[in-house]
Design a protein that fits this description.
The protein has about 170 residues and is an alpha+beta fold. Helices cover about 35% and strands about 25% of the residues. It has 3 helices and 4 strands. Strand 2 and strand 3 form a beta hairpin. It is elongated, with a radius of gyration of 26 Å.
Length: about 170
């Protein structure tokens, strides 16, 4: 007896095509948005910090919190930066520029290098706090710290993150 195979309906999917003009417009909009993002981020540092909740006594003052992320592996394959070397760098390069204080955290970092390879390494995070009114003076000091570490330890970069904070000591 012959077997009867059930008939399975086939679906025809229609994939909409994007016209070249629409594709160019979308790319242009994405470029404009990406180009404006850093400006918006720096503009946010000029905005006054949020007020304290109503009824709360606000003893704090507006500060900038800068976090610097220092990797310890060397892209040239040399030996990693040791804790002793890093703390000597802090003593020579960071403390003289920020004698009022700083915080150091040990960490494990991960990032994609300039060749596209994901690198994992021991790292250090240094947190600096300074009044917002001192930001124009502190910025070049921070950039000199980053450049010094990059040169001394053959690093591709030292990451930096700035944020507004309300601080009371």
């Amino acid at each position: 007896m012959p077997t009867i195979e059930p008939r399975v309906p086939t679906l025809k999917l229609r994939v909409p095509t994007v016209k070249p003009r629409a594709r160019i417009a979308a790319l242009g909009a994405a470029f404009v948005l990406a180009a404006a993002t850093p400006v918006a981020a720096y503009a946010a540092l000029d905005d006054p910090p949020a007020a304290a909740p109503s009824g709360a006594v606000d003893r704090s003052k507006p500060y900038v919190e800068t976090r610097l992320f220092f990797g310890t592996e060397r892209p040239d394959g040399g030996p990693p930066v040791t804790e002793k070397q890093f703390l000597a760098f802090v003593d020579r390069q960071i403390t003289p520029r920020f004698p009022s204080g700083l915080t150091i955290h040990d960490g494990r970092g991960q990032w994609r290098d300039q060749n596209g390879t994901i690198e994992r390494e021991r790292s250090y995070e240094v947190i600096l706090l300074y009044p917002t009114s001192e930001a124009p003076t502190q910025d070049p000091r921070i950039e000199r710290i980053r450049t010094a570490y990059e040169r001394q330890y053959a690093q591709e970069s030292v990451a930096r993150a700035d944020a507004l904070a309300r601080v009371d000591f």
